[in-house]
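Why does this matter for the project? Reviewers at the last site visit asked to see concrete outputs rather than summary tables. In response, this paragraph embeds two records directly. Each consists of the residue sequence and, immediately after it, the corresponding structure tokens. Nothing has been edited or filtered.
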Amino acid sequence: REAELKHGRVCMLGVTGLLVQEFVTLPQFSNGKTPVDDFFVVPSAGLWQVFFTIGAVEFFSNGFKLTPGDMFSEGRDAGDLGFDPLGCGKNPDALARRRLVEVKNGRLAMIAFGGMLHQQLLTGQGTIEQLANFKAIQ
């Protein structure tokens, strides 16, 4: 369950990133033909920074426990990292509904991200570009 929630959260951000990247460009970078191509524009040092930052976030968010046997030894729920600034966990019924919605949206985002990624690799067009120029097969 922990992995499903984590992958779902990452894919929700990834789908947003694939769409936004077609419209927004940082001034110091040039866009590739598709957002997938932009991955190869980033210098290797930048990719290593992302890799180590993600590792540090994983390490600190799990309280320095990296194995599934250790992570849940204190009884925490899967996906609950103790970050609730809006107080969404006060009502147990609403919390249960939000958790179910998060899992369902995460599953949809995983499928959407995979579909968008493969669509861009196969067609060489961004998702929005392809939708704007869509022609049905006759």
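We now turn to the second protein, recorded in exactly the same manner.
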Amino acid sequence: RGCLSSLQKKMPEDRVFLHQAIRVIRPWRGVLKARYMEEMVSSYIMPKLARAISKKRLGLSDTREDWTLVDILLELYEDRLLSDSDFLSVVEGEVLSQWCNAFYDWTQDHTKDPLSFQKLLANKYSTWRNYLMEGLGNVEQLSKGRQLLRSDSIVCRHL
């Protein structure tokens, strides 16, 4: 806990802190009890990760998505450093609310070419849905996190 607390003070940049904190905590997995690890991640890492996700602005015309923060969230869950409830809380809260707000803003855009705009929106939706629900790999080999997302009614309603 002391090391994570010290890192928080020394590294105000969220992404830098997140990468360093995960490097510090990962070797303790299997040494410390799982519940204790989840509590540390929940107390020190998740507030910064949730804040970073909520600050991220999504661009409609971005040709390449930056999945770094979502990947960190999935990675923490896959490494059993994050409880089901904490994982779903951030996905249902910060991730999906950012996504829905961005889509709402994009639909308010009045463009000169509505058909092209609709295709762009549909493509963006498909990209997000596929990444969150299936990832980049084989659907038969879904990660534990993506299996949980597929079984969550709130996530499924959004996607």
